[in-house]
Amino acid sequence: MKYIALFIIALLFWLLLTFNLSISNIVVGIVAAVATCILFGKHFAVTSFSKLLQPQRYFWFVVYLIIFIWECLKANFEVAYRVLHPAMPIKPGIVKIKIDLKTDIAKTTLANSITMTPGTITVDIIDEYIYVHWIYISTDNPEEYSQKVSGRFEKYIKKIFE
Prior knowledge:
By secondary structure, this protein is mainly α. It folds into two domains: 2-50; 54-161, no CATH class. It is built from six helices and three strands. A hairpin with a 2-residue loop joins β2 and β3 (129-134). It is elongated. The chain starts with a helix and ends with a helix.
């Protein structure tokens, strides 16, 4: 069942990338999807195919994308301010954030989301903790900086992947 799911995902990804519905392109997409299944099928970590068929997960994914884009825009302006300010007001450091995600894909998505947001880089994930290098540590309270760094993404990622 996971091979079928991987085939469908790979074929849809191919069609979205090429944006061409000609017969030759679909045939090439099918060949590429089959090759992907052969090479990477045993590593594909879909534990439940029924999760892929739940429409509310796609809704929360769209909501997450909107939140992510907004947070990236805000972070870009904040980093630009810090770079262009004559005093360059930075207070870098690594913070330890407790996360409530259980699956590896959810943890990886959170780590990548944090890294793609300007001013933060995920350094490591150990059990239920994620270590993040932050360009400006505005508080020493773990609950406050956890909310600022990962809180905006974590609740949506949990609704999508868990």
